[in-house]
């Protein structure tokens, strides 16, 4: 405990000046050094100061231990993805905020609050917490500095700034010896996830497999399911469809049995990508319509499901136009440009092939390229390659083929 900070906390709470508290016990300068934790007083001085404020030392020690235990549980909830319990722990800890600020628990508390806001996808609170941590960084230990950088990577992932996020993770490789042991699995998992987004599948598989091994060893079953989902996505992208399909079947069952509704929905959505790759569109549509009924209509995920449905070669133009209309209605905000672009794309695909290729080249491909949507950019590039080859426009076909090759595989 930072006993000086605790004494200052209670002095301020009791509306006492340093002069009033020090009177008859020690000098004002002595008390000032105690409160700034630059001097460790004799136990009798501590006792006298606390008694004067009506504070019992034994109860104070027990209170500190309780806060330490609660903070440890808050951290464990983060690591095991127990978000409901984490939310309850956060509410309890916030009630003790002023007290925690007076202890040596404050850095961990503020760091994991940052992680909590990222889990909640609360960008405003996460931004404020990021600024606070930048002011505290000078007091961080080596493991706390490592965590701060790791959480900043997660923060930029939340903002969809994946290149910035990956840069933070790559920099952490240099200080890997400072990694808190409990965070090895999280580090491997996040590295694998970001590498998938950048189409670096071989390296991603390496980190995903390490995450799976870590979570198995430490009996972290929910995060194990998340890591297995990464592996299944990785195998799908590498055309290892039998291996991916086996993992998806196990994941669907286990996510359902453990009540992980969001994970189940994510598993089904990614399994659909595998089915589309195998051109099994009927089953893909059935699963997507099931998802459509079970997720919030105005969520990002719902709009992604609409796009995926429109990619399944719907059997009637009426169905397609109904989905395009719904997607356009839901993508009215400026932040929804990604989905508006898709709504325009599917509409043009239904009515005008010439308009479609112009739109792909002048609007869709540049948008994906500028905003780091590598997978989507490659899909559009592949369509443009096919179009220009059919029209014997070899120079343009070569341009898009070069893009695909440069951004695929293990290009660094």
The number of helical segments is 23
**So what's the oligomer here?**
single chain
- Helicity level: over 70%
Structural class assignment: mainly alpha
Organism: Planococcus liqunii
Protein name: Helix-turn-helix transcriptional regulator
Pfam families: HTH_3
InterPro entries: Cro/C1-type_HTH, Lambda_DNA-bd_dom_sf, TPR-like_helical_dom_sf
Name a few traits of the molecule:
412 residues, disordered C terminus, TPR-like_helical_dom_sf
Tell me what you see in this structure.
Helices cover 77% and strands 0% of the residues. The protein has 412 residues and is mainly α. It has helices spanning 3-13, 18-22, 28-35, 43-52, 57-80, 83-95, 97-100, 106-119, 123-136, 142-158, 162-172, 184-197, 201-217, 221-237, 241-257, 261-277, 281-294, 300-310, 317-330, 337-351, 353-370, 374-390, 394-407. Helix 19 runs antiparallel to helix 20 and helix 21 runs antiparallel to helix 22 (374-390).
Set down the secondary structure blueprint.
Blueprint: H1 3-13, H2 18-22, H3 28-35, H4 43-52, H5 57-80, H6 83-95, H7 97-100, H8 106-119, H9 123-136, H10 142-158, H11 162-172, H12 184-197, H13 201-217, H14 221-237, H15 241-257, H16 261-277, H17 281-294, H18 300-310, H19 317-330, H20 337-351, H21 353-370, H22 374-390, H23 394-407
Helix pairs in contact: 1-3, 5-6, 5-8, 8-9, 8-10, 9-10, 10-11, 11-12, 12-13, 12-14, 13-14, 14-15, 14-16, 15-16, 16-17, 17-18, 18-19, 18-20, 19-20, 20-21, 21-22, 22-23
